[in-house]
Amino acid sequence: MSSSQIEIQLIASIVAIACAIPGTFLVLRKMAMISDAISHSILPGIVIGFFITQDLNSPVLIILAALTGILTVVLVEYIQKTGLVKEDTAIGLVFPILFSIGVILIAKNANDVHLDVDAVLLGELAFAPFDRMIIGGTDIGPKSLVIIGSILVLTIILLIAFFKELKISTFDAGLAASLGFSPTVIHYGLMTVSSVTTVGAFDAVGAILVVALMIAPAATAYLLTTDLKRMLLLAIVFGVTGAISGYWLAHFLDASIAGSITTMLGVIFFLVYLFAPSKGVIAVIYRERQQRTEVSLLTFLLHLKNHQEEEERHVNHLNEHINWQKVRSKTVVELAQKNNMIVIDNGVVSLTEKGEEFTSLAIDYIITNEDAKIEYMKDDFFLFRG
Amino acid sequence: MTNIAVKVDDLTVAYNYKPVLWDIDLEIPEGVLMAIVGPNGAGKSTLIKSILGILKPLAGSVTIYGKPYNKQRSLVAYVPQKGSVDWDFPTTALDVVMMGTYGSLGWIKRPGQKEKKSALEALEKVGMLAFQSRQINQLSGGQQQRIFLARALVQDAAIYFMDEPFQGVDATTEIAIINILKELRKANKTVIVVHHDLQTVPEYFDWVTFLNVKKIATGPVKDIFNDDNLTKTYGINFKVSVQE
Ligand SMILES: Nc1ncnc2c1ncn2[C@@H]1O[C@H](COP(=O)(O)OP(=O)(O)OP(=O)(O)O)[C@@H](O)[C@H]1O
Ligand SMILES: [Mg+2]
């Protein structure tokens, strides 16, 4: 790997981490759309900042653009507060206007400005290593790496300092307010961090990828955990995984890096959506199928327990007696055999001792709901995992 | 003369144009267990939120033991109406109860062992210790309500505001909750509860406030809980006289 390849992956990974942190809270606050709005409406801030400073990496430009981001949030909330339109409509009203102001500003001054809309929306990660930050004659790294790195450090400090405040105001704004943690202050703090991160990242990765990096990893992590800290960590892991795998995808396909990273983030989400251990689609289907089989098994065992007469217990008659389709009765009989709960002798099914015991315990459990007795069955049976 | 725990003067609150609370005057003495009753939309939740500084009133003032709320936060605990939190939030029952300690911690400081211990004690008190590591949306409505009560208990406040703590709970839980509230009163705490079941008002509470946009009446249950005030509040003829 060349050093610029390493630097590109490093920049992408740092951007991913910096985005995942505010992104987690945006997802939990159901504010995914607002990051989209911010990422577009910072354009006029960037353009005006660029007119003033003539430097895409100037702190003044970052501050101006971040202010435009916050202005977006303020305007959205103001419009929403009138009660005339809902939040999504308010967002849809505000950011296209701000964005188009930016577009017009660029178009009007296209002659003397080295700035175009594509660069802002898509960025160009591939060129990021060539724009170096040089202080006092020494090269301290790519400019965008220094900028986003500083933003990340700041974000982490704020996260550690205000973790509990972010948590409580996201979960229960009423309680937060009554305890003196102003949800408004925390809300605007989060919006400021989101805006600054977006601005800091757009030069390297573009505004669209910023949105993807904020929302997709957090949404993926949300499927996997019931703990906020773990959700943050997982979001970071997914963000970085998407960034690096996306880079290599782009490398082999010779495609846009930002586009490939976004694709990988989508792929990761989809995989987790399918395979997540408890909330995933496959896990749910598997569990439901398994539970249905277990219920049938119980019905079957009960039938055996309650009927001593041979014709009721004959394999060939089970279908008509218990009313199952053939397929199902086969699975159930096999499951019972595998667990040594029944023996089949000359086509007549009878319960083993273990089967007898299991059936009475299961019935007891279902009636009394007492966990202790069936502790050992929980590993094998979904039904008993309270 | 007992102390006045909460004093509300000329409070008027509006969300949009029309006020939902008009010119409320209210004095809540220390050590009472008070019900706020009134029909849906009467402004009960709004009244509590304005007292707690969650909403900004158009006019009027609120004092807690003679001082504005933001000076007295540590004296007050609040159990919001159930719908008001995000149940899918990735957090456990114990964690939610711990949130009750955040107020005394203040900004930036993080909860430690001491906070965890008092949270566990509160969980024990409401009979939810076994559920401490459950994700909150895997709890039943009544269990969630107990968690919120536990969260208020760890705040160890002087005044408790509870917005419909009995909403959707079974008889056992209701009795468990009311017993805890009565214990609080015994310890000379002031407890203010938004309550919908008029039948149980005389049995559970010693003080009552009738509210419907305006304050209709406030005082001891035995003096003012009568058909007249109920009719004024609910606008229909009431014949559920207080049982002796
Ligand atoms: N956020 C809000 N925006 C606008 N109007 C609101 C808002 N919250 C409440 N209201 C209105 O204010 C009035 C009082 O509401 P509040 O929630 O205080 O009633 P409540 O007495 O608690 O009712 P309930 O018994 O149903 O809980 C209602 O008419 C309600 O529609
Ligand atoms: Mg209410």
From TrEMBL, chain A:
Per the UniProt entry, what is one GO biological process? transmembrane transport
* Keyword field contains Cytoplasm: no
| Pfam families to which the protein is assigned, alphabetical | ABC-3 (PF00950)
Q: What family is it from?
A: Belongs to the ABC-3 integral membrane protein family.
Report the source organism. Cellulophaga baltica
State its location(s).
Cell membrane
Gene Ontology CC terms, in alphabetical order: ATP-binding cassette (ABC) transporter complex
Return the protein name: Manganese/zinc/iron transport system permease protein
UniProt topology in membrane: Multi-pass membrane protein
Looking up InterPro entries in the UniProt record yields:
ABC_BtuC-like (IPR037294), ABC_TroCD (IPR001626)
TrEMBL record, chain B:
UniProt cross-references to PROSITE patterns, sorted A to Z: ABC_TRANSPORTER_1 (PS00211), ABC_TRANSPORTER_2 (PS50893)
Q: Which molecular function terms from Gene Ontology are attached?
A: ATP binding; ATP hydrolysis activity
CDD domains given in the database record: ABC_Metallic_Cations (cd03235)
What's in the keyword line of the UniProt record?
Answer: ATP-binding, Nucleotide-binding, Transport
- Record-linked Pfam families: ABC_tran
For whether the record's keyword set contains ATP-binding, the answer is yes
Q: Highest taxon of the source?
A: Bacteria
Q: Which SMART domains match?
A: AAA
Q: Indicate whether Protein transport appears among the record's keywords.
A: no
| Residue ranges occupied by any ABC transporter domain in the UniProt entry | 6-238
Q: Which family does it belong to?
A: Belongs to the ABC transporter superfamily.
Task: Give the protein's recorded name.
Answer: Phosphonate-transporting ATPase
